[in-house]
Automatic annotation (TrEMBL):
The chain crosses the membrane at residues 43-64, 76-99, 111-128, 134-158, 170-193, 199-219, 252-276, 296-319, 534-556, 562-587, 599-619, 631-652. This is Major facilitator superfamily (MFS) profile domain-containing protein. It comes from Oleoguttula mirabilis. PANTHER family: MAJOR FACILITATOR SUPERFAMILY, POLYAMINE TRANSPORTER 4. One of its GO terms (cellular component) is plasma membrane. It comes from the Eukaryota. Keywords: Membrane, Transmembrane, Transmembrane helix. It is found in: Membrane. Pfam families: MFS_1.
Amino acid sequence: MAPRPTQRRPRAIATLREHDVHADLHWEINALDPQNWSSRKRWLHTLTAAAVTYTITFASSIVSPARYEFESHFKISPTAATLPFGLFVLGLAIGPFIARPCSAVFGHKSIYIIFLPLFAIFTLASGLVHTSYGLILCRLLAGLFASPVISAGCETLSDIWKPEERTLPLTVYYAAPLLGPMTGVLVGGFVTQHLNGRWTQFVVLFAFAACVVPIIFVSETSKVIILLRKQGTSAWVPPSLATLSKALLEPLLVLFTTPAILLISLYSSINIAVMYASLAAFPNVFHSFDLGTQGLTFLGMIIGSILALAFLALNHLILYKSRVAYWKEGKTAAAERAMAAKRRTNRSSHQSNVSNFSRPNFKRNTSHTSLAMSLKRMTTSPSAPPVIDQDRNVNLAVAAANYLNSLPVNEGRRILPERIQLLLNKNPAYGDLCTSLESYHLKLDRIQFANVLVDALPTAIAPAQSSLSVCAPQSALARSKSLHRSAAAAALDAPAKDAASHSDESWPFPAAPPQRMSYVEPQPIAHPPPAWRLWPALPASILLVASLFMFGWTAQSPGTSWVAPCFAMGIFAFAIMCTFVTTQLYIMDRHVEKDDDGSSALAGGIVLRYSMSFAFVMFAEQMYDALGAGWATSVFAFVALVTGVVPWVLVLRG
């Protein structure tokens, strides 16, 4: 009979998107986790994302000084001449609706690779077109294709930095969306004056060229995409409708269903919108200056922003970190006192010495049961002093050292078995042993580590000295190993289960009741209050209002030097930078316990921020022409005065 040809079984589409469960469970110690990269690599990715965001926001405002040339060259109205500036900003507001679904399917790096070349193409087209309609359309499309990159940058930083490490990287990154528009107006004034308005787009391409090489070498940071590529999944699988709808609608749902996030995003968005309106209208105040000199007036805003960055860094290093450290010490001490009180209560209320996984004919201090009882912590201490089994400890120490040295995150540490044996000779509880190893900055998975130690036990029990050797030693050892693993999993991964679920009918002894267990699960230390992030925003909210009043009325007064409004612009930029960075940090800390790490709330903030900026840009110049510099700027000041109560309320009320 001829052999039946083997048919290749078609692989179901659903299985292509199944992730590596083991890698997912042990992601925190996986070398592929971006948070386990070296500090240098993470900073390079941070600076690359910041440089790209700076280039995009630089491109948004560089055409603002050229609108007078567009008005005369294309014979269009002042409002139409402002559209190349305003519609680019409007395009940035659409970014999260494109970036999040694409990131869920292709990953974050693909966003850079796909959309940045499209941004460059339409920027080039903006400099080559000869009609006003073509210019407006190309600028809109350039902003539209650049917007997903800004949203992907926020998600990238959420992936590569842990919550306790992200303050300084995020401060650097969030400086880019403010410094970009300020320098864009400065450079655009000189380029338009000495060349023409078309060359403003070519200058953007030069800045983009400097970002091309770093973008090519960035690594993927999305956990889902990394795990899929690790499995060798190369076929494209269409995502489910639920995945796309969640990625598409979640930013708006988080924004409009969380009052604190909505209020702080609205406050930050209004401040950024006022800044964009100033870029469009403030040059009218210095109408006696040429375009290049008008751009130089924004140098005060750039200096103010840089000083704000220094202030925020010092605030973090000197005030915030010290207070958080003091707060964590207090929380840790309170948790330890609560655990000690609970142990004392259990010790006084339960008099039985039977562990949930021990049996009546077991000797408590023999080598084959001591690790099991340490995993679940006996109710009371044994009356006899603990027996130190040196042979067992040697085998356990060697197995533990081999396991720790095999982890990529511990590469180069050279863990010696002798050091671990010193810890084992103290007969520590399993949790205390893991805590001691982690205090030396070693990474381990506690369930996996427990299995490694259990596998080393049969070697230590090889001599027929165990009480189990009288009855079936092999089956007893197998059951003992199974119970060890069950105890480890119950203690470390999930609430304790009834021991009866781990036994079978051949086991002659009933399981001990679960209420006799006295293991106290340590509670994780919570994160400090997010409202602490807003402290720098409190004085900044006052400076913001004062600087707007100062600029408006010093600019309108004919006898006042130009230095006074420029100084007010510097204070204004200082306040804007402080409020913007701190509000973004606050939003991320509010969502630090969630899976999206705050990226959904930040994406909703991007939509609100650039939508309001578009509206403010379009009416700012007309408002200044109608009301004058004094009252027009005062309108912005009154709005900032009303919204400025938001950080005060969140700090005082939480």
